Amino acid sequence: MVSVRGVVNRFGTQVVHDGVDLDVYPGEVLGIVGGSGSGKSVLLRTMLGLHRPTAGQVLVRGRDITTLSDAEMLDVKRSYGVTFQHGALFSALTVAENIKLPIREFFAPEEATLDALAELRIRMVGLSVETGAKLPSQLSGGMVKRAALARALALDPSLLFLDEPTAGLDPISAAGFDELVGYLQKSLDLTIIMITHDLDTLIATCDRIAVLVDRKLVTDTLEGLMQNSHPWIREYFHGPRARSVRR
Amino acid sequence: MTALLQTSGAGTGLELRLAGGWCIDNVAAMEKALQLFRALDARQIRVRYGGIERLDLSGAWLLRQALRATRERGIDVTEVDAPPDHFPFIEEFAAAETAPAETSARPRLRPLGRTAAWIGRDALERTESAREALGFFGRVVATFMGAMLKPKHLRLPSIVRHVHETGIQAVPIVALIALLISVIVAYLGSQQLVNFGAEIFTVDLVAIAVLREMGVLLTAIIVAGRSGSAFAAEIGVMELNDEVDALQATGFDPFEVLVLPRVLGLIIALPLLTIIADAMGLIGGALLSILLLDISLEQFIVRLQDALAPTTFWAGIVKAPVFAALIAMVGTLRGMQVRDSSRELGRLTTVAVVQSIFLVILADALFAILFVEIDF
């Protein structure tokens, strides 16, 4: 579905990624993990086409997005949805308006249809219909994340990118969000790439995990990574906070 | 209060007895005591901690530093009794100290060298900045061309909103300021002209000054302050919130959605505001003439018609769209450059206003030269 080949990202003299390779298979949930400052957000932006890498290719459904024209890139952007770390909802618009914006832009249906489509997505993520009329500033943290997910699903994408979806959520909300992601993934047959620190989320939802260490990616299942001998990976999965992994 | 440090003995038998409260609220006393450490001249000292009544982390840290410095000077320090509990804790993280911060690898230049370096760096930054601005301008024009071919991309509701916010909402302030300034200018001028019995020419003065220059320039400066900062701040906050990234990831072109509507909105609004400013300016001049100079309204109007050339009004109004484009593009460009922090937002908003006012005045000067050359 998504392949990253030999991506190098250099900013001045600082090399953030040095030959990153990744293959994401259709229908899987892949977690991306890495220390703070290891370049997870840059990798995400490279895969989204928001950042052109210094070298390397990013293939989405077989097409190298680093070489596409703006019009072709638009096609690609329509096929995926993104949630950003702090929601990044358009603060001047209500939740419903946030969801309707991409639909209206690309398909221009009637207003009543838009209302219905927005309502579907709002309910799909477990929010009440009244939430649609609220502004992002009026929502709690958990609701912001769900609303962002609803907007990411606006165009019925088959590929979803989630940037730290459970960051800042209390354990109950985080577990609820994990469940939601799992449920939507099965129901809609989504391929999901998520950046997360949350070990519980990694265990609960991810099929494979890619670890960003030493400016490269090491991809494996959880069991495989538990056996990995790299010092950072050992610390991550066997450290004092990895209680849930040890169970 | 017990002295924090007491010495007894001398030579090889010098003993330092620490006592009292080594806490942050005693910092002045601690500093005095530590000076004693620095003044020590023995080759061997013994330290006794037993008398310390209160000790907090700050006191422990200062003490440790002092003991360390003393050892480094070659004085042998032995502890007579057990050091306080704080010390092992401090040792843990002090031991993890990395090498002292690397001094900058940059060669230390003499003042002349430093100035040259600064000039060089500044020149490079300005060139880069100019290149970025040119690129931005080109992109706006390209987006506009694209939008003309596909009218659906023109986002009329957005343009209308901006015309409302930058134009209609600015009418009161622009009208008031235009009125006041023209009254002031007319007053000053008339005071001089009255010496020659030529106060009727105040009308000429007002007409030409307001319509050719002041109407459009004042309006542009007010709008630069109002809307230049608004554009930079609105877009800047969106950048900080990742909203611009979200737009791009959803397939929207920020230039089409954010920049172009603002530019077009202002290009429509500013000339209309200028007309209002011109009118208020003439009214202000008329008021002054009627009330202060004993010029009747009929006289004013007749004189005005004589004073106005066909080009007077147009020389002013033709500058308005140009000023509008400058203000809008500077505002939106600076907004899109905001990254990382609220401080950047504040700085770039300020830069937007200052630069747009500067460019407006510069453009005005260039127009003046042009008009003289082509006799407009």
Overview of the molecule:
The complex is a heterodimer of chains A (247) and B (376). Chain A has 247 residues and is of the alpha/beta class. Chain A has ten helices and ten strands. In chain A, the strands form two sheets. In chain A, strands 6-7-8-3-9-10 form a six-stranded mixed sheet. In chain A, strands 2-1-4-5 form a four-stranded antiparallel sheet, with helices on one face. In chain A, strand 9 (208-213) and strand 10 (216-220) form a beta hairpin. In chain A, helix 3 packs across helix 4 (111-124), helix 3 (95-107) runs parallel beside helix 5 and helix 4 (111-124) packs across helix 5 (141-152). The radius of gyration of chain A is 18 Å and the shape is globular. The mean pLDDT of chain A is 85. Chain B has two domains: 5-95, Transcription Regulator spoIIAA; 140-374, no CATH class. Chain B has 13 helices and four strands. In chain B, strands 1-2-3-4 form a four-stranded mixed sheet. The longest helix of chain B has 39 residues, at 111-149. The radius of gyration of chain B is 36 Å and the shape is elongated. The mean pLDDT of chain B is 87.
